[in-house]
Amino acid sequence: MFKRPQTVFVLLILLIVLLVAVDLPENYHLKFRIKNFSVDRVINPLKLSLSLPGFRFTREFKTRLGLDLSGGTHLVLEADMKEVPAGDRANALESARQVIERRINFFGVSEPVVQSARVNDSYRVIVELPGVTDVDRAESLIGQTAKLEFREFVDEQAATNAALTFPTLANTKPVGLTGKDLRRAEVSFNNQTGSPEVALEFNPEGAKTFGDVTSRLVGRSLAIFLDDFPVTWPRVNTAITDGAAVITGGFTVEQAKTLALQLNAGALPVPVRAQEKRTIGATLGSSSVTKSVRAGLVGLSIVALFMVAKYGRLGLLADLALILYGLLTFAIFRLIPVTLTLPGVAGFILSIGMAVDSNILIFERYHEEKRMGKPWRIAMELGFGRAWDSIRDANMTTLLTCMILFNPGNWSFLPSSGMVRGFAITLFIGVLASLFTGIVVTRTLIRVLYKEK
To answer: How far apart are CA 12 and CA 166, in angstroms?
Structure first.
């Protein structure tokens, strides 16, 4: 790639144009006039869509702010475990957390935080909803007990349509079997194939009803709905009268675990009530964003001036690469998307200073090679090559630290809150982007635009 720097330079220009389009603020008002040509329109956020058979991906490039910056609702829900056996309480709490999180996602809240917590005999679900100020509506939405219901299809055509899309309540009807009839659902493994499956166990009343239903629906599908949403619709292969059934379907272990948790959410209904609820205003968030942006601009300006004062034209090219770094990093934040909290903004600002570390190492190596009498072009190539080991090692340690702070494995001895994770993810992305701009972008700009006697 570096053998044709002019081609890379053109690609970088195209990349800058794309990044500017991605990074435009929401509903940006574009207005300009050149002679007889004028533009005056509001540009909506850029949207990316990808459709494949059985897969659809859509992403709108919008800036998502966390609870501390945009305001929102904070809820602490206490789970009532009186009717749940002691051995099933942890499972019931996790099921409740998953159901609440799914309800919130359907509510349209961007990047909610839903965590379960246990202190002695207290089982709680902590919910943070950025941008939601109607605390009573949020509580009524997520505080309902999960409703699990078994339903049969009204006709064969409805079952055929469901196999192609999703079943709905309109093309099904109840069979008199609900979550109160299901004792538990758990992951098991087939004795012959070893593939994961989900085992169901009904209570005596549920076993009788389930036996009658499966005897009548042999060869047909039986849909299972959770909160009026279809969870699974397996085919009944034989009548099951002993109250123990197995759902198969080529599951992975994680898929089987998820299905079991969803079924347990109805099998082990856990009433929840709000222990604490409060609305966080956006005034503090607006002030924090303004101060953070101001700090970022001041820091960026100081770094840019230092690079020009220290390295002259080379520093100016490094500053151009730094601008592309900012555009690229912010575009990645929007693509993933990353919910920006105040610590996350701090991680981004910190990564700005780290973004020029690579250039400083390269330029210093370049000056060392020149002092040894090498021509400037050869000295520059050697500077890039010999500085790479130091750049790689320094940034690798930072990336490892970010992974530990993000705590992907949820290790108990390394608890990680959403704020800490926000700092870790923005710093991680910033370091990766700085490696690209420090090596690829700066090198290309120097090869194309820089000359020295």
So the answer is: 44
Please name the amino acid found at residue 239: A
What span, in angstroms and rounded, lies between the C-alpha atoms of 341 and 233? 40
Q: How many residues would you count in the chain?
A: 453
Instruction: Please state the rounded mean pLDDT for residues 355-377.
Output: 91
Let me know: does 358 contact 391? Beta carbons within 8 Å: yes
Which residue is it, tokens 């330029």?
363
Intra-chain end-to-end CA distance of the chain, in Å: 26
Q: At what angle do helices 357-371 and 376-406 cross, to 10 degrees?
A: 150
Q: 129 is written with which tokens? A: 């909803």
Which stretch of DSSP H or E encloses residue 428?
helix 418-436
SS3 call for 281:
coil
Domains identified in the chain and CATH numbers: 5-23+282-449 (1.20.1640.10), 72-280 (3.30.1360.200)
User: Which spans in 217-252 are helix H?
Assistant: none
Mean pLDDT, range 319-328, rounded to an integer: 92
Give residue for tokens 């690079």.
307
Give the pairing type, strands 196-202 and 148-153: unpaired
pLDDT per position as a tens digit, 208-252:
999 999 999 998 989 999 888 888 899 999 999 999 999 998 888
Q: Which residue has the higher pLDDT, 237 or 340?
A: 237
Burial of 202-231, coded b for 16+ CB within 10 Å and e otherwise, reads bbeebbebbbebbeebeeebbbbbbbeebb
Phi-psi map region of 24: left, alpha, beta (phi>0 left; psi -120 to 50 alpha): beta
Would you say residue 60 has pLDDT above 70?
yes
SS3 133: coil
Place of tokens 């909290």: 341
* Residue pLDDT, tens place only, 384-419: 988 988 899 989 999 999 988 887 544 433 444 567
Residue carrying the six token digits 């159901």: 99
Q: Which residues of 319-345 are buried (b: 16+ CB within 10 A; e: fewer)?
A: bbbbebbbbbbbbbbbeebbbbbbbbb
